[in-house]
Amino acid sequence: MPNGRRQNQGRPHREPAIEHIRNPYVYISGVFAAAWVLAAWLRPDADYVAFPVLVSGSFPISYRLAMGPLSPPLAIGAAAAGAINTIVLALLLQVAGILGGPDLWPALGAVGQSTLLGVLGAAAGAVASSYGRGESRT
């Protein structure tokens, strides 16, 4: 190792993944989160079951749109981040008193339903974001 650096041993050189910062797709999850807050603020009695799925599932999908098919660890990490966003947002809406529901699973409560839907959306987003990985593109 000259100068204390590792030499590239047959692996292609990869630039740091900063392209996603300039790509507007990565903000899709935030747009869905803002729409959920606005909808809940305008009609707090309604239950918006699609928003937890959209907020958590769009996070890994947006990275796929920005960077191509994701590796499994990156897809799982993006899905976990999306699920955490959904859970935190559901808790904040509950504290504000504008989280409607639950409509689908009354035994879970409003935050529990949002959490379950967020985890399901994140799992679907992780699978969809890694779809096509390893296929030949020629």
Give a verbal description of the structure.
The protein has 138 residues and is mostly helical. The chain has helices at 28-42, 50-67, 72-96, 109-129. The longest helix has 25 residues, at 72-96. The chain starts with 27 loop residues before the first helix and ends in a 9-residue tail after the last helix.
What features would you highlight for this structure?
mainly alpha, 4 helices, single chain, 138 residues, 57% helix
Share in helix: 55-70%
**Number of helical segments?**
4
Question: How widely separated are the two ends?
Answer: 36 Å
Stretches with pLDDT under 50, minimum 5 residues: none
Strand content: under 5%
Rounded to an integer in angstroms, the radius of gyration calculated over CA atoms is 19 Å
Total DSSP E strands: 0
Structural class: mainly alpha
User: Which shape, going by the Cα principal axes?
Assistant: elongated
What order do the helices and strands follow? HHHH
The overall pLDDT average reads 83
What profile does the largest beta sheet have?
Answer: none
How would you summarize the topology of this molecule?
Blueprint: H1 28-42, H2 50-67, H3 72-96, H4 109-129
Helix pairs in contact: 1-2, 1-3, 2-3, 2-4, 3-4
